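Thread: Newbie trying to understand structure tokens

Hi all, I'm a second-year student working on a class project, and my supervisor (Dr. K.) asked me to get a predicted structure for one chain before our next meeting. I've only ever worked with sequences, so writing a 3D structure as a token string is new to me. If someone could post the tokens and maybe explain what I'm looking at, I'd be very grateful. Here's the chain:
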Amino acid sequence: MEINSSFAQINQPIDVVFSRLSTTECYQDLMPEGATFSVGENNSFRFKLGGMPELSLRIKECIAPDTIILASSGGKVEFELIGLLESINENQTQVQLQFKGNLNPMMAMMVIKPLTQFLEVLIGNMHKL
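---
Reply by user tm_fold:
Sure, no problem. This is what the structure looks like when written as tokens:
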């Protein structure tokens, strides 16, 4: 299953955006209001939204200057959250998020709407970088 967010335009150079998204602490600023967030070891962080189970992500790979791959860790479902960056000009960067996971069709039907909304909140908060 793959879900793509809309695009966000950030008024910062691509190297600055890449640097920020390569650190676990910055993801707290992107989380929806009310989410609990904690930074863990080995480039990982945990967060919890409402009644959903706590999720743990780690920075799996950073491919300068345009790709950051976060992978689930310790959960029942394996997935990746990928940040794709593109330089618009020397002072502006476009960002899109992709969710990629192996979900059975029933699970996919149940989570597609909340996952899409979550990605849109994250992309909508990119201006906070």
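A couple of things are worth pointing out once you decode it. Strands lie at 2-10, 36-39, 44-48, 55-63, 67-72, 79-89, 92-101. Helices lie at 14-21, 27-30, 105-124. Feel free to ask follow-ups in this thread.
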